[in-house]
């Protein structure tokens, strides 16, 4: 049986590790991003000589921070990367802000949903590219706004037409990481922005990955070690 932990237990593990001096939030975020990239390259090794193109959608919290790390690490590997950002940089938590700023020195941060044209994102729609969902992780507290979920759905529809693969950072955005239920708005509001081909979570699976809608929307679930000690 797979041992799962709740999001609250994950936060406690993280806080204990940081307060005891075992690690820092910055290092955890770097390892989380590296774990996502490792899982991508393990699942799609041929992408090393395929399009090597990714659109990374980053949200307003630390899940978005992980996304900025993924964007930087893929760029370092020679990928072409477009970053969309749903949020306000000035309000990002510190580690996410740092990684946003590091990325901003490497490439543009395109507001998402885009204000006038989807062109920066659509330019990436070629077969085999990746859509990386770093919008919301264990901090999702309410249904995703209609404008955001509609914009993601628009990209996802293009994705289906163009054989993209979707990678979720920690959880597919819209999935409650504790209960495995979808935080849905009124119909036709989609509850899960992106049902993933690959979900990369950290330290241990969360309860929500394994129950209710979780298994159906996560795709393959990979657990990355981020240095919090042995998993439960
Ligand atoms: N903890 C760990 O051990 C590690 C965590 N790591 C990573 O951090 C992630 C957790 O980060 P997190 O706590 O910042 O939460 P996250 O999911 O980014 O979202 C919070 C933001 O979203 C907002 N918001 C919420 N719902 C919303 C909605 N419907 N629509 C709009 N906004 C909404 C919310 O705003 P608020 O509710 O305060 O208004 C807040 O701004 C975790 O999943 C993992 O990826 C790793 O780096 C390694 C170690
Ligand atoms: K996510």
From TrEMBL:
Gene3D superfamilies: YjeF N-terminal domain
Domain named YjeF N-terminal: residues: 10-232
SUPFAM superfamilies: YjeF N-terminal domain-like (SSF64153)
InterPro entries: YjeF_N_dom, YjeF_N_dom_sf
Binding site for (6S)-NADPHX: 62-66, 137-143, 170
Cofactor note: Binds 1 potassium ion per subunit.
EC number(s) on file: 5.1.99.6
Catalytic activity: (6R)-NADPHX = (6S)-NADPHX; (6R)-NADHX = (6S)-NADHX
Cofactor(s) needed by this chain: K(+)
Pfam families: YjeF_N
Annotated family: Belongs to the NnrE/AIBP family.
Name of the molecule in the record: NAD(P)H-hydrate epimerase
Upper lineage: Bacteria, Pseudomonadati, Pseudomonadota, Alphaproteobacteria, Rhodobacterales
Gene name of this polypeptide: nnrE
